[in-house]
Design goal:
This protein has 186 residues and is α/β, with parallel strands linked by helices. Helix content is 37%, strand content 16%. A 6-stranded mixed sheet has the order 2-3-4-1-5-6, sandwiched between helices. Helix 2 packs across helix 3. It is globular and about 45 Å long. The two termini are 24 Å apart. The structure holds adenosine-5'-triphosphate and magnesium ion. The site of magnesium ion has 4 residues, from helix 1.
Protein backbone atom coordinates (compact mmCIF):
# COMPACT_ATOMS: atom_id res chain seq x y z
CA UNK A 1 0.00 0.00 0.00
CA UNK A 2 1.24 3.48 -0.84
CA UNK A 3 0.81 5.81 2.14
CA UNK A 4 2.67 9.02 1.58
CA UNK A 5 3.85 9.80 -1.89
CA UNK A 6 4.62 13.37 -2.76
CA UNK A 7 6.57 13.74 -5.95
CA UNK A 8 7.09 16.82 -8.08
CA UNK A 9 8.81 16.33 -11.41
CA UNK A 10 10.42 19.01 -13.55
CA UNK A 11 11.65 19.24 -17.17
CA UNK A 12 15.21 18.15 -17.83
CA UNK A 13 15.45 15.83 -14.82
CA UNK A 14 16.30 12.17 -14.62
CA UNK A 15 14.87 10.77 -11.40
CA UNK A 16 15.61 7.29 -10.07
CA UNK A 17 12.99 5.41 -8.10
CA UNK A 18 14.47 2.65 -5.95
CA UNK A 19 13.09 0.33 -3.30
CA UNK A 20 12.97 -3.35 -2.43
CA UNK A 21 10.97 -5.90 -4.42
CA UNK A 22 7.28 -5.44 -3.68
CA UNK A 23 7.72 -1.91 -2.32
CA UNK A 24 5.17 -0.59 -4.82
CA UNK A 25 7.37 1.08 -7.45
CA UNK A 26 5.49 -0.39 -10.41
CA UNK A 27 2.19 0.40 -8.71
CA UNK A 28 3.25 4.02 -8.27
CA UNK A 29 4.18 4.29 -11.95
CA UNK A 30 0.85 2.78 -12.99
CA UNK A 31 -0.92 5.38 -10.87
CA UNK A 32 1.14 8.19 -12.42
CA UNK A 33 0.34 7.01 -15.93
CA UNK A 34 -3.35 6.60 -15.11
CA UNK A 35 -3.63 2.80 -15.32
CA UNK A 36 -4.58 2.56 -11.64
CA UNK A 37 -6.55 4.94 -9.51
CA UNK A 38 -5.30 5.96 -6.07
CA UNK A 39 -7.82 5.67 -3.20
CA UNK A 40 -6.84 9.15 -2.04
CA UNK A 41 -4.79 12.05 -3.25
CA UNK A 42 -4.43 14.33 -6.18
CA UNK A 43 -2.55 13.81 -9.39
CA UNK A 44 -1.82 16.63 -11.80
CA UNK A 45 -0.41 15.74 -15.15
CA UNK A 46 0.19 18.39 -17.76
CA UNK A 47 1.67 16.36 -20.57
CA UNK A 48 1.27 13.09 -22.39
CA UNK A 49 3.23 10.42 -20.57
CA UNK A 50 5.49 7.85 -22.23
CA UNK A 51 5.32 4.60 -20.25
CA UNK A 52 7.58 1.57 -20.40
CA UNK A 53 5.95 -1.18 -18.30
CA UNK A 54 8.11 -3.63 -16.35
CA UNK A 55 6.72 -6.49 -18.40
CA UNK A 56 6.78 -5.67 -22.10
CA UNK A 57 3.26 -5.12 -23.43
CA UNK A 58 3.66 -6.28 -27.03
CA UNK A 59 1.61 -8.08 -29.66
CA UNK A 60 3.17 -11.48 -30.38
CA UNK A 61 2.06 -11.64 -34.03
CA UNK A 62 3.13 -8.12 -35.06
CA UNK A 63 6.59 -7.20 -36.29
CA UNK A 64 8.74 -4.51 -34.68
CA UNK A 65 7.91 -2.08 -37.48
CA UNK A 66 4.19 -2.79 -37.17
CA UNK A 67 4.43 -1.91 -33.48
CA UNK A 68 5.95 1.46 -34.38
CA UNK A 69 3.09 2.10 -36.83
CA UNK A 70 0.41 1.09 -34.32
CA UNK A 71 1.80 2.98 -31.32
CA UNK A 72 2.93 5.95 -33.45
CA UNK A 73 -0.52 6.49 -34.93
CA UNK A 74 -2.02 6.13 -31.43
CA UNK A 75 0.00 9.17 -30.30
CA UNK A 76 -0.93 11.13 -33.42
CA UNK A 77 2.24 10.87 -35.52
CA UNK A 78 2.10 10.94 -39.32
CA UNK A 79 3.50 8.04 -41.35
CA UNK A 80 6.64 10.10 -42.14
CA UNK A 81 7.11 10.99 -38.47
CA UNK A 82 6.67 7.36 -37.44
CA UNK A 83 9.20 6.15 -40.02
CA UNK A 84 11.74 8.76 -38.99
CA UNK A 85 11.34 8.09 -35.25
CA UNK A 86 11.47 4.33 -35.82
CA UNK A 87 14.72 4.57 -37.81
CA UNK A 88 16.29 6.70 -35.08
CA UNK A 89 15.21 4.43 -32.23
CA UNK A 90 16.17 1.24 -34.11
CA UNK A 91 19.62 2.75 -34.59
CA UNK A 92 20.01 4.25 -31.10
CA UNK A 93 19.06 0.99 -29.39
CA UNK A 94 20.81 -1.16 -31.99
CA UNK A 95 18.02 -3.49 -33.15
CA UNK A 96 17.47 -2.43 -36.78
CA UNK A 97 18.18 -5.98 -37.96
CA UNK A 98 14.96 -7.09 -36.24
CA UNK A 99 12.70 -4.40 -37.72
CA UNK A 100 10.74 -6.94 -39.79
CA UNK A 101 10.83 -9.78 -37.27
CA UNK A 102 7.68 -10.97 -35.55
CA UNK A 103 7.80 -10.00 -31.87
CA UNK A 104 7.17 -13.55 -30.69
CA UNK A 105 10.52 -14.58 -32.17
CA UNK A 106 12.58 -11.85 -30.51
CA UNK A 107 14.95 -12.43 -27.60
CA UNK A 108 14.01 -11.05 -24.19
CA UNK A 109 16.46 -8.16 -24.52
CA UNK A 110 15.24 -7.24 -28.01
CA UNK A 111 11.64 -7.22 -26.78
CA UNK A 112 12.80 -4.90 -24.00
CA UNK A 113 14.38 -2.58 -26.60
CA UNK A 114 11.06 -2.37 -28.43
CA UNK A 115 9.17 -1.86 -25.15
CA UNK A 116 11.43 1.09 -24.34
CA UNK A 117 11.40 2.51 -27.88
CA UNK A 118 7.58 2.58 -27.91
CA UNK A 119 7.57 4.62 -24.67
CA UNK A 120 9.83 7.20 -26.36
CA UNK A 121 7.83 7.52 -29.60
CA UNK A 122 6.58 11.03 -30.24
CA UNK A 123 9.03 12.49 -27.71
CA UNK A 124 6.74 12.73 -24.67
CA UNK A 125 7.90 15.36 -22.16
CA UNK A 126 7.47 12.94 -19.27
CA UNK A 127 8.72 9.38 -19.54
CA UNK A 128 8.16 6.68 -16.90
CA UNK A 129 10.46 3.68 -17.28
CA UNK A 130 9.96 0.61 -15.12
CA UNK A 131 13.28 -1.28 -15.10
CA UNK A 132 13.61 -0.73 -18.86
CA UNK A 133 17.12 -2.15 -19.12
CA UNK A 134 16.95 -5.21 -16.84
CA UNK A 135 17.73 -7.50 -19.79
CA UNK A 136 19.93 -5.21 -21.88
CA UNK A 137 23.45 -6.26 -22.83
CA UNK A 138 26.24 -3.94 -21.73
CA UNK A 139 26.50 -2.03 -25.02
CA UNK A 140 22.74 -1.43 -25.08
CA UNK A 141 22.84 -0.31 -21.46
CA UNK A 142 25.39 2.37 -22.45
CA UNK A 143 23.29 3.30 -25.50
CA UNK A 144 20.26 3.63 -23.25
CA UNK A 145 22.09 6.20 -21.12
CA UNK A 146 23.25 8.14 -24.19
CA UNK A 147 19.63 8.32 -25.30
CA UNK A 148 18.37 9.29 -21.84
CA UNK A 149 20.92 12.12 -21.61
CA UNK A 150 19.95 13.41 -25.08
CA UNK A 151 16.30 13.50 -24.08
CA UNK A 152 17.18 15.25 -20.82
CA UNK A 153 19.01 17.95 -22.80
CA UNK A 154 15.79 18.51 -24.75
CA UNK A 155 13.92 19.08 -21.50
CA UNK A 156 12.34 15.65 -21.11
CA UNK A 157 11.74 14.44 -17.56
CA UNK A 158 12.57 10.77 -17.08
CA UNK A 159 11.62 8.62 -14.09
CA UNK A 160 13.45 5.33 -14.02
CA UNK A 161 12.84 2.44 -11.66
CA UNK A 162 16.12 0.67 -11.13
CA UNK A 163 18.01 -1.63 -8.79
CA UNK A 164 21.40 -0.65 -10.22
CA UNK A 165 23.71 1.59 -8.23
CA UNK A 166 25.43 2.80 -11.42
CA UNK A 167 22.05 4.22 -12.50
CA UNK A 168 21.48 6.13 -9.29
CA UNK A 169 24.86 7.83 -9.74
CA UNK A 170 23.80 9.09 -13.18
CA UNK A 171 20.43 10.42 -12.03
CA UNK A 172 19.76 13.96 -10.85
CA UNK A 173 17.63 12.81 -7.94
CA UNK A 174 17.01 9.51 -6.21
CA UNK A 175 13.82 8.61 -4.37
CA UNK A 176 13.39 5.51 -2.23
CA UNK A 177 10.00 3.88 -1.75
CA UNK A 178 9.78 2.06 1.57
CA UNK A 179 6.77 1.09 3.71
CA UNK A 180 4.56 2.95 1.27
CA UNK A 181 6.41 6.22 1.72
CA UNK A 182 8.56 8.00 -0.76
CA UNK A 183 11.72 9.61 0.58
CA UNK A 184 14.37 11.61 -1.21
CA UNK A 185 17.78 9.94 -0.94
CA UNK A 186 19.88 12.42 -2.94
N1 LIG B 1 -4.09 -2.95 -7.72
C1 LIG B 1 -3.51 -3.43 -6.63
N2 LIG B 1 -4.20 -3.50 -5.46
C2 LIG B 1 -3.61 -3.96 -4.36
N3 LIG B 1 -2.34 -4.40 -4.30
C3 LIG B 1 -1.61 -4.37 -5.42
C4 LIG B 1 -2.14 -3.86 -6.65
N4 LIG B 1 -1.16 -3.92 -7.58
C5 LIG B 1 -0.07 -4.44 -6.96
N5 LIG B 1 -0.34 -4.70 -5.67
C6 LIG B 1 0.60 -5.23 -4.66
O1 LIG B 1 1.46 -4.18 -4.31
C7 LIG B 1 2.75 -4.68 -3.99
C8 LIG B 1 3.79 -3.91 -4.76
O2 LIG B 1 3.86 -4.38 -6.10
P1 LIG B 1 4.76 -3.67 -7.19
O3 LIG B 1 4.72 -4.55 -8.39
O4 LIG B 1 4.33 -2.28 -7.36
O5 LIG B 1 6.21 -3.71 -6.50
P2 LIG B 1 7.63 -3.27 -7.08
O6 LIG B 1 8.24 -2.32 -6.10
O7 LIG B 1 7.48 -2.80 -8.48
O8 LIG B 1 8.45 -4.64 -7.01
P3 LIG B 1 9.62 -5.23 -8.00
O9 LIG B 1 10.92 -4.59 -7.58
O10 LIG B 1 9.60 -6.68 -7.70
O11 LIG B 1 9.23 -4.93 -9.41
C9 LIG B 1 2.73 -6.16 -4.29
O12 LIG B 1 2.59 -6.86 -3.08
C10 LIG B 1 1.51 -6.33 -5.17
O13 LIG B 1 0.93 -7.60 -5.00
MG1 LIG C 1 8.15 -3.48 -10.23
Amino acid sequence: MLRGVDLELFPGQIVALVGENGAGKSTLLRILVGLETPDLGELRRVERVGYCPQEAALYARLTVREHFRLFGSAVGLSVEQINQAAEELLDQLSFAQYADSVTDELSLGTKAKLNLALALLGEPRLVLLDEPHASFDWDTYLRFWELAKLRRQDGTCIVIVSHRTDDTELCDQVYNLSNGKLGRVS
